[in-house]
Fold:
Amino acid sequence: MAPFCENDSALLKATFTGGYRAKTFLWNTGQTTRFIYGRQGINYTVVVTDEAGCQDSASVTVAYFNRDNTPAGFSLSKDNATTFTGNWAMPTLMPGVSLLGYRMAYRQANAGGPWSYTPLSLNQTATVDFTGSGLPSGNYEFAAFARVNDNGTILNSGFTCKERKFYNGIGAKNDGASITSSNPLAYPNPFKHSITIQINGDSNIRISDALGRMILETSMNAGSHVLNTADWANGVYILEVIGEENQNIRIIKD
Structure:
């Protein structure tokens, strides 16, 4: 397992197939367990021996934590029972690389689920509010990354060091609501007579109602766009942003 922070150790695991009965392990460090922790940049070798005396060996060099274009000094605060704020410093960009913005990623730790992300922004901070999310209680991990133009290729940097905070699940469930951030895609949400859409790059916009009927389909340039929704019926709508950053959220008129 690769390290997920500078100066962290990585977990190394010896795996095997076949052989006779029980196996023993001997690492070049002298350790005799199946799992060990290794330092970044160091090569490790393990010899596996079965009860018949047959041996096999393997070597691995622990990768370095990827710092290329990655924001530095990530820190996380828990502002209240449902709100978490991350802060970070500008990355050192490689030659020919320009910064497009940042996003903060978050998910329940050790659950194997997908990451959620805040919208792209040039701010070096982002906040997520679990109110109305229906997320279960548990430890959640957070990290930041940069979106960059690397000599004409748009890509994401590696994650910063991950930070964890406990969430006790009190956010309940609010049908149709999405987790909000300090850099919202659409606001206010819920809305009444108008809604503002914040676009970070030229994109196609589609809005459909709960039955899948198209309400609006248009192109928007980067920036803020106010939609007049006075004639829209109350209810849940799906907002799709299709472009450099594809996003899909529910918005509510009440």
